[in-house]
Amino acid sequence: MASTQRRGRVRAAWAVAGCAATFAATAFARRREREPFPGERLLKGASAAGGLALAALTAVPPARHRTRGAAELAARGAAAGLVQGGSHLLFDALAVALRRTAGTADPDAAEVDPGRVAARCLALGSAALTLVAARWQAREGAGTCPRCGGRPRPAAPGALAWSGYVACALSLPYPVVKLAWECGSDIGITRPEVIHAVPGGWLPVVPALAGSLLSLALVRPWGRTFPRWVPAVGGSRVPRPLVLVPSCFGLAVLAEVAPAALVAGVRYVNDPATPPVEEIGLRPWVPLTFYASWVLWGVALAGAAWEYHRTTAGCPACARS
């Protein structure tokens, strides 16, 4: 019991320190740029809320279950906000890659501020620390396992096991069409000279295909156990964070981009004041198909990630499921 409490407090201290570092790095980046940047308010608010929620979990006695439950929920919500704010790292990486691929002569094109990148990296790390600390602190008390910090509980009802396959299928329209364009195809294109002239058009395909592979890893056996042909780790259990952390990151990216893109795409197509989509080089179905598939991909990916979490959360010390 005392060992569990001590471990929980140590993890909470690290998580609070991470939240404080995220808040400070965000404020520093804001001062350097002198103007708001995407996710700035979310990073500040989530880091402050996460630190306060963890402090409450540490201070409130274990007997006050409702208060601790509310604090745990607040900590998990703060962690989700930190992941959401840090997910813009993907677009920072794409901007740098596109800048180098295009070889633009403008030194200010697609500029990425290092302070902003540092704040987003700290946000992702703080999110992981916050989730771990909340789990240990909220389950503090009698009957907890000294290894995992949890209490035995019955298995939760399963999500649809095929959600990962659906997520993989929904992730494919964008990379398949983009790769077809890179290979010279004119599918969905009205102005080939415009679309084919875009430099680095293949770069967004890489994270999209990585997301397709991740969607399958959530439901395939090799997402739980390394294949035996893998050197050194073949046949051993895949660490859950290796699959769940990228899944949460992907969900944050899709939640940030997909709904807004779909709404903007529908408004653009239906707005008589804007030029037709054909004038920018695309058939109307192309952006709408991309954005709609992203929204549905996010829903299916969330189901697959929950199913993976539910079926891999066992603890060998207490047989917790």
Question: Can you describe what's shown?
Answer:
The chain is mainly α and 321 residues long. The chain folds into 2 domains: 2-138, Butyryl-CoA Dehydrogenase, subunit A, domain 3 (Up-down Bundle); 163-312, no CATH class. It is built from 11 helices and no strands. The protein has helices at 2-33, 40-59, 65-86, 89-102, 114-138, 163-171, 173-182, 192-195, 205-217, 240-270, 285-312. Helix 3 packs antiparallel against helix 5, helix 3 crosses helix 10 (240-270) and helix 9 (205-217) packs across helix 10 (240-270). It is globular and about 65 Å long. It starts with a helix and ends in a 9-residue tail after the last helix.
What is the count of helical runs?
Answer: 11
What's the gyration radius in Å? 22 Å
What is the string of helix and strand elements?
Answer: HHHHHHHHHHH
Assign the structural class, choosing from mainly alpha, mainly beta, alpha/beta, alpha+beta, or little secondary structure. mainly alpha
- What's the total count of β strands? 0
Distance between the termini: 21 Å
Query: How many structural domains?
Result: 2
Tell me, rounded to a whole number, the average pLDDT. Answer: 82
- Strand composition percent: under 5%
As a percent range, the share of helical residues equals 55-70%
Shape, principal axes of CA atoms: globular
How would you sum up the major sheet? none
Low-confidence stretches: 105-110, 152-159, 316-321
Keywords: Membrane, Transmembrane, Transmembrane helix
Transmembrane segments: 12-30, 201-222, 242-265, 285-306
The gist of it:
With 321 residues, the chain is mainly α. It is 65% helix and 0% strand. The chain crosses the membrane at residues 12-30, 201-222, 242-265, 285-306.
